[in-house]
Amino acid sequence: MKLFSAALVSATLIVSSANAGNLIAPVMEEEVIVEEASASSGSDWLIPLFALILFAAAVGGGSSDTITSPIN
């Protein structure tokens, strides 16, 4: 009986000392993320200008009728 209670007491002390100090959650620092603004390139206007030129050429291209009249 003494051997059983000695083993029980020693097991209790070992388990309680293993869990001691684990009561508070660890404090984790937040990671700061800095996003740099993208530098605007000077070619932002090229694509709309090219589209406008293509549209103007398509609309004002004139007649594509190349058949000549056989009557003189």
UniProtKB/TrEMBL annotation:
What are the entry keywords? Answer: Membrane, Signal, Transmembrane, Transmembrane helix
Residues crossing the lipid bilayer are 44-62
- Signal peptide start-end: 1-20
User: What's the protein here called?
Assistant: Ferrochelatase
